[in-house]
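Aim 2, interim progress: modelling of the flavin mononucleotide-bound target.
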Amino acid sequence: MKIWGILEVEKNIIYEAIVTTSSDSGETNIAPMGVIFTGEDSFLLRPFTDTTTYRNLREQGEGVVNITRNPEHFILSILPPLRKDIALEDSRRVKTSRLKDAEAYLEFIVEKIMEDGGRAEVSCKIIEAYRGGELIQPYSRAAYALIEAAIAATRVRVFLGRERRLIELLDDIERCRRTVVRVASEGRFRTLLERLLEEVRRMIGHASST
Ligand SMILES: Cc1cc2nc3c(=O)[nH]c(=O)nc-3n(C[C@H](O)[C@H](O)[C@H](O)COP(=O)(O)O)c2cc1C
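Predicted structure of the complex, ligand included:
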């Protein structure tokens, strides 16, 4: 299925993207989120109800899906002190800003919200879609291992009190760490990995000292 002539996707697959939303006061929030396409101009987001993304979607009813495969976007956006290092710029039709160097943008409005326990299903309608800067990057296992590690890292905080699940998450992160170290022993990917691991250690250390 082609989205506005720019994006080839399949229905019912979770794609990972960076969603920007804005608060009442106009502050931009940046978070990785899964996107599930349901039609040529519609998709679902499934934010946990305790996220800022969810609050902003409910209150402002709009946002931008920033299509990117750059692991830097995923890692920096989940590390609050580093989020400010992500460059933003004005979008075309929504007031929420977009990432400066994503590969494509889907500007959207919220059509329907359903809450189910701790998670919501937000139906969104694309009102503008266009390409960003073209990025031709050969496949690197490190890039995808980093994004996988980022997903596990965002769940660590949630499972701090549940030892078995926590161990599974730490195992996942360790597997990703080994891949990154093997194929990108130095450079930007390695630095991103170290920053992510620092944050995971900080969360675990903080939990065990309280
Ligand atoms: C690749 C990736 C995909 C993610 N998908 C989701 C998702 O679909 N729903 C969700 O609530 N959190 C998801 N997360 C976790 C959120 O990005 C994370 O909890 C974030 O801190 C929420 O930020 P916010 O409170 O600023 O909105 C994902 C994380 C990563 C790294």
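The mean pLDDT is 95. The pocket of flavin mononucleotide is lined by residues 16, 29, 31-34, 46-48, 51-53, 74, 78, 147, 150-151, 154 (CB under 6 Å).
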